[in-house]
Every structure is written in structure tokens, then in C-alpha cells.
Amino acid sequence: MPENLNVSLNPIEKVKLDPPEFFDIFEPLKNFLNWLVSQITSLGSTIFSFVKENIVTPLVNAISWVIDKIVSAIKSFFSTIVSSIKSLFYPSDPEKVVSNLPIILGSVSVVSLGLGALLTSIGTKVVGTGVNVGPLSKMVSSLFRPDLIISFSLGTILGYAIRLPIGYWTKKAFRPYKPDPVTLFNLYTRGYITKDQLKSELAYVTGYPDIYIDGLIDIFSYNPSLFDLLRMADYVELSDDFIKRSLMILGIKEPYFSIIVTLIKRRPVREEIRYNVNQLIEAYSKGYISKDFLTLSFDSLGLQSQEKALMLTYAENKRTYEMIDERVFILRTAFQKGLITEETLRSELTKLGLQIEWVNLIVDRGKLYRKIELPVPKVTRGYSVELPITTSYSYTIS
After folding, report:
1. Given 281, 298, 315, which residue is the final one in a domain?
2. Structural domain of residue 285, as residue ranges?
3. Residue 152 and residue 79 share a domain
4. 188 is a domain residue
5. Residue 131 and residue 95 share a domain
6. d(CA 41, CA 28)
7. pLDDT tens digit string along 312-340?
8. What is the CA radius of gyration of the chain?
9. How many domains does the structure of the chain reveal?
10. 114 and 205 share a domain?
């Protein structure tokens, strides 16, 4: 086939367009769409601003004005009613109520007329906004009719300013109330009524049969609490009968009854028991009494088992330490007098179980007193003591 008959099958090569140049033909379309969207957005914003300024804002303002006026009128109405009613209670008697009725009814009528005028002005205020306030005016007019307001005011005044005083007067004259049982008992204890009057009144106000009245009076009477019993026992020796009766009134039963009785009896002498225990331990530590005597004495004092065991342990430890102190004193004195050497002193102190620090301190103290040369005083005929003018002593601490 001749060379000049070769036909290229590549369409891009046939059109003679590069790919970047091919996509550039959509740029005008994109710019047009952007312009169209911006115009539509601007038109919508203009329409919204027009509606808001000319329709929505006036309508909202008109409705807010209507609501504010109605709320203000209702507050004024109720404030007038409450102030008028309050003025009737100082003093609260029928004559003052009747004398103030014309003033109150006049105030209520003025408020009613003011509400009517307000409803008329509401229609004028919002007529230009296209809002129909006719139903609202009818509703408010039906609620605040002059006849309805006057009847409500009269009912309130008569109910609270006349009915209550008349009720108090009739109760006092025909059916006086009696005090409650506790108040009656307080009147009796203060001497305002006798015991027979107390019984009669209690039977009347409680409705109890006479068989229960004496018991009721006994309940109202003073009965010591458990705390009161303990404080009493600190200063007064309480009898068994008194303790038993007081605990029975409090409703305490076994197994607590016997425990509390023992507590009340032994609590006042608790400090004395401790004092005797301390004396016994001191006597045992010094060897004046035996351990058996100490144990029997603890039993007679009524110590608890654990308390007794702890006190015996304390007594044994105190006795041991007292004996060690005595032995240390003997050894130190013997060393100071030159009866034993320093090596013997250290050996004996170590056998006693003393720590090395205490052994060194005891030896050093013994050396201090061992080296002092004490002068011998001369007793004169006038019983005065003559000391040398000078004394000399020396000591060393290793």
C-alpha cells in the first residue's frame, strides 16, 4: 500500500486538540452558573428584608404591646383588690368592712372601665397590621365584666373580712375550744387549774375513760432518762427500787436491764476503783504485797476480765523495771565508793539488759561523783558550819 494512503485512526490526533484545551470550553458555563446563584441569593435576601421590616416587625411589636397592656391591667386589678382587702384586717370587724365597701367597689369599677378602654385601644393599635384582635377582646371582656368583678370582690371581702371574725366570735360564745392534753398538763403544773379540773378536762378532750386518766398524767410527769440516771448516780446513791422503777418506765428489759443496773451502780465509783488499782500496783512493784494478794484485790474491785489481765501485765512490768532501777543504783553507788571496778560495772549493767548507750552514761556519771573530794565541815560551839575557803576536785570522762 502506498505511504500517502495511510490514515490515522486516533480521533484526538484527527481533531488536533490537546486535553487541557478540551476542558477549557466549560469555564464560561461555570462563570454563568456562579453569577446566576449570586443573583438569586441577593434577590432572596432583599425579599426577606422587605418582609421583616414591613410585616413581621410591626406584627410582633403589636402583639407584644397587647400582651404587655393586658398583663399590666391584670396586675393593677389584683393589686387594688389585695390592697383593699388587707386594709380591712386592721382592725378586722364588720363595721369597718361596711364603711370601706363603697371605696372598694369604686376602685373595682374604675379598674373594669380601664380594661374596657384598653380593649378599645388595642383594636386601634393593631388595626394597621392586619391582626384581628376581636376574639381576644371578647375573651378579656367576658373575664373582666363589671358584674363578675364586683361579685368576686364582694364574695372575697365577705368571706375573709366578716366570716372569720364572726366564726371566732360564735366559737368563743357557743363552742369554745379546749387546750390540748399537753397544754392542760402545763396549766396544771403552773397552778392555773387543780388536779380534779385536769382530770375532767383530759377526759373531755381525749375521750378516754377515767381508768386511763391517772396513767396519762403519770406519762406527762417527769421521768428520768438513762442519761439523767447516770448523772444522778454521780452525786446521789440511788436505791435499787428507784433504779428498777425508772428503767421499767423507760421500757428497758433483759438482757439490757441487768447490765444497765450494774452500770448505774458502779459508774460513780469508777475513779475510786482506778485509784485503788494504782495503789495496789505500786505496792506490788515495791514488793509490799504478793501477786496472789494483788489478784484477789482486783477480783474484789470487780474489774473486767480483759481489764484485769492488762492491769496484771502492767504490774509485772512495773515491778521488773523497779527492780532494775534499784540494781542499777546499787552498782553505780558501789562503783562511786570504789567497791567495784569500771569493768565489773559495765559487765553487770550489760547482764541487766541495758543498751550500750545507757551503760556508758551510767559509768560516766559514776566517774563524775567518784572523783569529787568533799571537804569535812567543822562544827563550832555556835552550831554554825565552817567550810574551807577553797576546794579542789577533778574528774575525767572517757
Report:
1. 298
2. 224-298
3. yes
4. yes
5. yes
6. 20
7. 999 999 999 999 999 999 999 999 888 99
8. 56
9. 3
10. no
Query: Strand pairing partners for 385?
Result: 379
Contacts of 335 (CB under 8 A, 6+ apart): 341, 342, 344, 345, 363, 366, 370
CA gap 396, 375 in Å, rounded: 20
Closest CA to 203 of 227, 184, 222, 177: 184
Residue 218: CB atoms within 10 A of its CB come to 10
Does 59 map to a domain?
yes
Select from 187, 196, 189 the least CA-distant residue to 214. 196
Whole-number pLDDT of residue 224 = 92
Q: How confident is the model at residue 91 (pLDDT cuts 50, 70, 90)?
A: very low
Closest to 149 in 3D by CA, of 98, 113, 102, 99: 113
Residues 104 and 44 in one domain: yes
Mark 84-121 as b/e (b = at least 16 C-beta within 10 Å). Answer: bbeebeeeeeeeebeebbeebbebbeebbeebeebbee
Element (H, E) at 379: strand 378-379
| DSSP calls for 59-105 | HHHHHHHHHHHHHHHHHHHHHHHHHHHHHTTTT--HHHHHHHHHHHH
- In this structure, is residue 63 part of a structural domain? yes
Torsion angle, alpha carbons of 215, 216, 217, 220, to 10: 120
- The model's pTM: 0.41
Give the three-class secondary structure for 131. coil
